[in-house]
Amino acid sequence: MRLDLHLHTTYSDGLLTPRELVAAANAGGLDVIAVTDHDTAAGIEPARAAAREAGGPRVFAGAELTCSLDGEEVHLLGYGIDPTHPAIAAFAARGADLRRERLAAMVARLNALGVRLTVDDVEIEPDCRSIGRPHLARALVGRGVVPTFQEAFARFLADGGPAWIPSRGPDVQEGIAAVSAAGGVAVWAHPALEDARQFARLRGLGLVGVETLRPRSEPAESLALEHAAREAGLLCTGGSDWHGAPPALGSWYVTERHVGELLGRLGVPS
Ligand code: AMP
Ligand code: FE
Ligand code: FE
Ligand code: ZN
């Protein structure tokens, strides 16, 4: 079984609609995907509808909640949530408002840096519930300010960059509580190795797992994260965090060997 448990769609900052994502997953040979858009679960039902029509893949519900931990931004994956649960809806509504304000503030930063761009230049898909830096990066490319998406991040938008404004999410404790209330399993998305110091503390708050396997991670780092996760009593997961750019979906995947424990928690027979 091939799985990819961290994917974005046009409901946040991905390039593919849920229907296109399902088609790409089938073309790439994936048996199971999790739709994990930033701060919204609205793309799950459309993905499931498309998967029912196409006869696969199996679609797990997910969301990647923007949270804060000691003033630093952390991302929390909620697997197996009820996408319509009020705790997730409240999180999404708050996030959407903050993200709109943040977009305007980042455009103002760019203007102060001499970049001619307006909020209206930023193309937002009608379905999008979660505006992010990738939308702004694409607009900068579209307006000819920078030649490539990566250059937009390198010059302006990367963490610490001159037009970057951090996303201010609720405390991670609230995120874990929202995921748990919605019947889901809370997993720390793409932590750095130094974050391992916090694993035990977050486990005490209800964290269940850690995303230890990613396409770009060094094997030694994945192993160290896995070791730290196990020590803290947390399970390990993996996902590509694919947003629609090459390489193709399915060229990287995880198997039950790595994510079997999570599958067990989600009630998938092994
Ligand atoms: P935001 O949620 O607005 O802070 O944007 C975060 C998203 O921007 C991530 O999920 C990635 O899709 C993208 N991103 C963040 N940093 C970079 C980077 N250095 N290069 C390319 N994309 C990035
Ligand atoms: Fe993203
Ligand atoms: Fe993330
Ligand atoms: Zn992500």
Description:
This protein is α/β, with parallel strands linked by helices. The chain contains 9 helices and 7 strands. It has helices spanning 18-27, 44-54, 86-112, 133-142, 149-157, 172-181, 199-204, 219-231, 256-265, and strands at 3-7, 32-35, 58-69, 72-79, 185-188, 209-213, 235-238. A 7-stranded mixed sheet has the order 1-2-3-4-5-6-7. Helix 1 crosses helix 2 (44-54). The chain is globular, with a radius of gyration of 18 Å. The mean pLDDT is 96. It binds adenosine monophosphate, fe (iii) ion (2 copies) and zinc ion (ZN).
Structural class: alpha/beta
Strand content: 15-25%
**What is Rg?**
18 Å
Label the overall shape.
globular
Order of helices and strands: EHEHEEHHHHEHEHEH
Strand order of the largest sheet: 1-2-3-4-5-6-7
Helix count, DSSP H or I runs of 4 or more residues: 9
> How many angstroms does the end-to-end distance come to?
10 Å
The quaternary organization reads as: single chain
Main sheet summary: 7 strands, mixed
User: Uncertain runs with pLDDT below 50, 5 residues or more?
Assistant: none
**How many beta strands in the DSSP annotation?**
7
Ligand inventory reads: adenosine monophosphate, fe (iii) ion, zinc ion
| Residues in helix, % | 25-40%
Task: Report the average pLDDT across residues.
Answer: 96
